[in-house]
Amino acid sequence: MTTQAAVEGFLAQRTLAVVGVSRNPQKFGNTLYRELKKRGYRVFPINAHAESVEGDRCYPNLSALPEPVGGVLINVPPAQSEQIVQEAATAGIHWVWLQQGAQSEAAVRFCEAQGLNVVAGECLFMFLQPMDFFHKPHRWLWRLLGKLPK
User: Taking the model in full, what pTM does it have?
Assistant: First the structure.
């Protein structure tokens, strides 16, 4: 179960990798990547099939990164997430965010067994500050309904 402490801990990491960016700038992984950069994060895009994304050098996997990162945001299908969390553990990354739709029970169990801090099944936009116009009322409603991590 995701906790508010896990969300805050992940967001406190100022250097992140984003797995699931695409050569197509309209894809959601790219939106996440751009928004993290806009908010001052140092972000590395990960895509095994792209040399660059959003004008930035892209890396094929977490082990190819030029420097350590504090966390990894995963935005790929659940079956791929299981491999990515294993790569994260091997790379010494301690903070993992499995974006909505990327989480799997096996990936979460692996993170917990390895002592990785994991946020699973939450939308990053519900917690990024400053919050955008669309997510502000959505977050208010989730708080009212008791759906936010505690």
Answer: 0.92
